[in-house]
Hints:
By secondary structure, this protein is of the alpha/beta class. The chain has a domain at about 5-255 and about 440-485: Amidase signature (AS) domain (Amidase signature (AS) enzymes, Alpha-Beta Complex). The chain is built from 17 helices and 13 strands. It has helices at about 10-15, 20-40, 50-65, 105-115, 155-165, 180-185, 220-230, 250, 265-270, 275-290, 305-320, 345-355, 360-370, 380-400, 425-430, 435-440, 470-480; strands at about 45, 75-80, 115-120, 140-145, 145-150, 170-175, 190, 210-215, 260-265, 295-300, 405-410, 445-450, 455-465. Helix 11 (about 305-320) crosses helix 13. The longest helix is centred in the last third of the chain and has 24 residues, at about 380-400. It starts with 7 loop residues before the first helix and ends in an 11-residue tail after the last helix. The chain binds glutamine. Glutamine binds next to loops.
Amino acid sequence: MKLEELSALDLGRKIAGRTLSSREVVAYFLERIARFNSSITAFSQVCADLALEKADQIDRQIASGMAMGPLAGVPIAIKDILCTREMRTTCGSRMLENFVAPYDATSVEKMERAGLVTLGKTNMDEFAMGASTETSIFGATHNPWSLERTAGGSSGGSAAALAAGMTPLSIGTDTGGSIRQPAAFCGVCGLKPTYGRVSRYGLVAFASSLDQIGPLAHRVEDLAACLETIAGHDSRDSTSINAPVPQYTRLINRSISNMRIGVVREQIEHAGLAPEIRSAVNRAMEFLTGLGATIVDIGLPHSRYSIATYYVIAPCEASSNLARYDGAHYGLRADTKSLHGESPLEDMYCHSRSQGFGEEVKRRIMLGTFALSSGYYDAYYRKAQQVRRLIFDDYHRAFEQADVLLGPVTPTTAFRLGERLQDPVQMYLGDLFTVGANLAGIPALAIPAGNDQAGLPLSIQLQGPPLAEEKLLSVAYQLEQALFFQPRTANLS
Ligand code: GLN
């Protein structure tokens, strides 16, 4: 049996019904990782022994008749930015190359309790700053559909691991599109929940007001099951929302016949949008109309400022968050004893940061520090916050007219590795359709929509009002059924 073609929930059902053991499933995926990871670099670390041990434990619990959740015994891959006690948490950075967190992130704890088995940590752009997973110290992640192309980023490892059939489920983080864009490039599903829906406790901070943790999977129902597992209020994250967690998996198969689907004019008419992606959005629109949904035309007039706004706010928050890596508290400390400078402490700070951080991270720290400095604060940071509000208000108005917004995830399909590395602005512009959801704090989901003529995955995005994950999941579920999207694992052998 090709286990990589089953959904995570199907694997869970087989494990619960004991037609497969968790050990068999975990060993199967570990074997695929051993075979393919050297050409894909989806995983930065693999914890084979721990995973097999955990699988045996789950198998024993199931044999003893213990009640377990639907994902018990199912393997999962976790982005290397979530703190784990039993593995390193590197953030793809030299700075944290040897860092082992003293605690598990809340979401990791919740997955552990649900019986999910961690296979390892996935590769990412350094500190999640990027859109191609090329800035990691472990090297670039390759797109399983076309090895000379990017898997997207920053959660490129989590998306590529799925597309290469190395895991049935993975976790990513999304500050400006880092779950949805790699999902789109790799032909898998990805969900960025509402800001605060999933606790950020134990997530290494990039831009705290934008960061969210979320699932990636082959199937929409797997997104629902995984979100159900990790969502919920957490007293250790003051921004986490104190609202009950719906049973997303139960709600997913609802009729959407009276839904109003908004199509964002500024997105669908955008000159930079690849024609094949536009056609995919149109096809989705037709299917939804066929199911009885109403299509409404929506304007998000301030969305053209979203990249500029995001690339002020995110670096500002990053420059503040990354101040903690000073060689004294965490991570790398440069050996500066032999320098005998006038200020040994300053030498230690400077050299630790200069050796520990890569180019893109340094660029963001400088941008953020500049935009926050006195004299520029009002012109850049305050202005960006004001525009952020206008972007939020645009969405608020849009959701008075539509239940869900439909559009593209990315302007293009996966670009070639190296193509945008020397041109940061080019890289940033690719985030055009994703950053809005983070600035507004709303949930957004990417699902596959077939392939282009070159065989590269196409993808569409759904966005909804705060806490409307179940609506997004229901629409995505219908689209998935209607368009008959198969589990999408690239043929690597
Ligand atoms: N590409 C965006 C950036 O570089 C988004 C990254 C993210 O979502 N972590 O900031």
